[in-house]
Design goal:
This is 2-isopropylmalate synthase. By secondary structure, the protein is an alpha/beta fold. It has helices at residues 30-43, 57-69, 86-96, 112-119, 123-138, 156-168, 185-198, 218-227, 249-258, 260-263, 285-296, 317-325, 353-362, 369-385, 391-402, 448-460, 504-525; strands spanning 11-14, 47-51, 77-83, 102-109, 143-149, 173-178, 206-211, 232-235, 345-347, 389-390, 411-418, 426-432, 438-444, 465-473, 482-490, 493-501. It folds into three domains: 11-296, TIM Barrel (Alpha-Beta Barrel); 317-400, Recoverin, domain 1 (Orthogonal Bundle), CATH 1.10.238; 411-526, Alpha-isopropylmalate synthase LeuA, regulatory domain (Double Stranded RNA Binding Domain, 2-Layer Sandwich). 39% of the residues lie in helices and 19% in strands. The strands form four sheets. An eight-stranded parallel barrel has the order 1-2-3-4-5-6-7-8, surrounded by seven helices. Bound molecules: acetyl coenzyme *A and 3-methyl-2-oxobutanoic acid.
């Protein structure tokens, strides 16, 4: 893809795989990052920030694989973050080599508080580093983005000076981060206005904004920046990211779509102009959101704008009355516009493979034969226990069955649990180890889940701490599928796992095993063979 006339629309820079992955516990492996990157390309994002190549061998490999497999000539720009340091820029350039459109995103702090306490550098030193490192990045790629970190708390005159030097040394995108989510929308507008008025040549580069959500203002700040001339926004799916997260892609995109007549004049268009303000295929939003939530284990709060379970639900009588009479009395957008499946009942235990495949296709899932068979077998098992199968159930089944399996992990063979108010909860579990051994053990616990987790721990023997456990019902009704999400900690890292079943104790066992398999895989990569050098030195 190319960005020929950035003034005409908003460039969507997705940083789910970089800033989003900085959410505690959202660690993704390379295959998971690739799956999300493919979906982001389908969604139509312009730029994918695939990671921070120097951060770890895994991040380097993820950027490289995404550059190879998603960074096609007609695909998005693939970007890696790099501190304003030679080793970071070299790692980014190396990992991005296979991309048709590579971008290096380099950054250095500019606020006095960061200079004094973190970098221990003077303003003139920071100016010199920014100039030389942007020029260095430019020696590898044409497309260089520069971020003055903590820009919103930087003294404006110094910020203007840094940006002027960044442009003079070849930056093609200037990104303004509100790193600690401190700005209000009015201040953000003034900041952008000040930059546009005081930085020479600023209109020759793409002006971008990166807003954090510490005060819940990330989307509002991004929209305020757009009103003042910013043409790229950095955002993440479901708003995940460091601390309280980033501006949510789906909120910005839908605000620009639903309120197009309001935003059009800021692009020099007539209020009723029809062309979209982004390249996003909004019907892919729901699917992307669900995939990111599943793979990161970051649940979506039910009242989350656009993608929350309640976002299109009408509970109260007066609202329902209005909706029945005329939808738009209480709805400003249609669920279908974000690709939300309608809760229609379509299939049951007597349905065949053809109807199953057709319905999945309508829901946007194109499965290969092996995945289709796995999902169909599971569908039949669930349909035996559950009278009505909704689109939501089908989706949970497909995601469960086709989720990226951690290679060489532990598999649960059988699980049996006895519990009740006059018995000691007891779990018996058989697993297959990565090297093919079959092991069985049993124990009692304070409750069925405790018993199951104790047995799994005894069988798997990977030290870990259960940090979070949650159960969500996929649909209403006593026979609903339950989705269990767990997070386990090991030293400084957190790993998540998810699984669905009509029996939530079974779902809990599989979710825990999924998380432990991720931890197991992580521990395996910590011991790479001596000849595997992933990062340039
Ligand atoms: C606002 C943001 O989201 S920025 C992105 C944040 N993301 C991450 O940090 C995730 C990935 N990070 C990492 O894996 C590690 O922090 C690494 C690999 C980058 C660096 O690891 P380490 O070398 O162990 O350094 P550590 O993380 O302890 O400290 C950061 C160092 O970078 C320096 N630094 C921070 N930002 C910059 C910058 N933009 N340019 C140059 N140096 C910088 C700090 O001053 C500190 O250096 P010091 O140790 O000499 O004081
Ligand atoms: C790297 C920059 C853009 C960042 O994430 C921030 O400042 O929050």
């Amino acid at each position: 893809m190319s960005i020929e006339s950035p003034a005409d629309r908003i460039i969507i820079f997705d940083t789910t795989l970089r800033d989003g992955e900085q959410s505690p516990g959202a660690t993704l492996n390379v295959q998971e990052k690739l799956a999300i990157a493919h979906q982001l390309a389908l969604l139509g994002v312009d730029v994918i920030e695939a990671g921070f190549a120097v951060a770890s061998p895994g991040d380097f490999q993820a950027v490289k694989s995404i550059a190879e497999q998603v960074g096609k000539p007609d695909g998005p720009i693939i970007c890696s973050l790099a501190r304003a340091m030679r080793q970071d820029i070299q790692a980014a350039a190396e990992a991005l080599k296979p991309a048709a459109h590579p971008r290096i995103h380099t950054m250095i702090s500019t606020s006095d508080i960061h200079l004094k306490y973190q970098l221990n550098k003077s303003r003139s030193e920071v100016l010199a580093i920014a100039a030389s490192m942007i020029a260095y990045a430019k020696s590898f790629v044409d497309d260089v983005e520069f971020s003055p970190m903590d820009a919103s708390r930087t003294e404006p005159e110094f910020l203007y000076q840094v940006l002027e030097i960044a442009i003079a040394n070849g930056a093609t995108t200037i990104n303004i981060p509100d790193t600690v989510g401190y700005c209000t929308p009015k201040e953000m507008g003034n900041l952008i206005q000040g930059i546009r008025a005081n930085v020479p040549n600023i209109d020759q580069v793409i002006l971008s904004v990166h807003t954090q959500n510490d005060l819940g203002l990330a989307t509002a700040n991004a929209l305020a920046a757009i009103e003042h001339g910013v043409r790229q926004v950095e955002c993440t799916i479901n708003g995940i990211g460091e601390r309280a997260g980033n501006a949510a892609l789906e909120e910005i995109v839908m605000a620009l779509q639903v309120r197009k007549p309001f935003f059009n004049p800021f692009f020099g268009r007539a209020a009723d102009a029809e062309a979209p303000l982004t390249n996003i295929k909004t019907q892919e939003i729901y699917k992307t959101s669900a995939l990111v939530s599943q793979l990161t284990g970051m649940l979506i709060q039910p009242n989350k704008a656009i993608v929350g379970a309640n976002a299109f639900a009408h509970e109260s009588g007066i609202h329902q009355d209005g909706i029945i009479k005329h939808r738009q009395t209480y709805e400003i957008m249609e669920a279908a516009s974000i690709g939300l499946p309608e809760n229609r009942i379509v299939l049951g235990k007597h349905s065949g493979r053809n109807a199953f495949r057709t319905r999945l296709k309508e829901l946007g899932f194109e499965l290969n034969e092996a995945d289709l068979n796995k999902a169909f077998n599971r569908f039949k098992e669930v349909a035996d226990k559950k009278k009505e199968m909704s689109d939501w159930d089908l989706e949970a089944i497909v995601r469960d069955q086709t989720q990226i399996q951690v290679e060489s992990g532990f598999q649960i063979e059988h699980i049996q649990v006895i519990c009740g108010d006059c018995t000691c909860p007891t779990a018996t579990i058989t697993i297959v180890t990565p090297d093919g051994k079959i092991l069985t053990d049993a124990t009692v616990g304070t409750g069925p889940v405790d018993a199951v987790y104790q047995v799994i721990n005894r069988l798997v023997q990977i030290p870990n701490q259960l940090m979070e456990f949650s159960v969500q019902s996929v649909t209403a009704g006593i026979d609903a599928l339950g989705t269990v999400t767990v997070r386990v900690g090991h030293e400084e890292r957190i790993f998540s796992g998810q699984a669905s079943d009509t029996d939530i104790v079974v779902a809990a066992a599989y979710a825990y095993m999924n998380a432990l398999n991720r931890l197991y895989r992580y521990l395996e990569i910590q011991r790479p063979p001596a000849d595997s050098v992933l990062m340039p030195t």
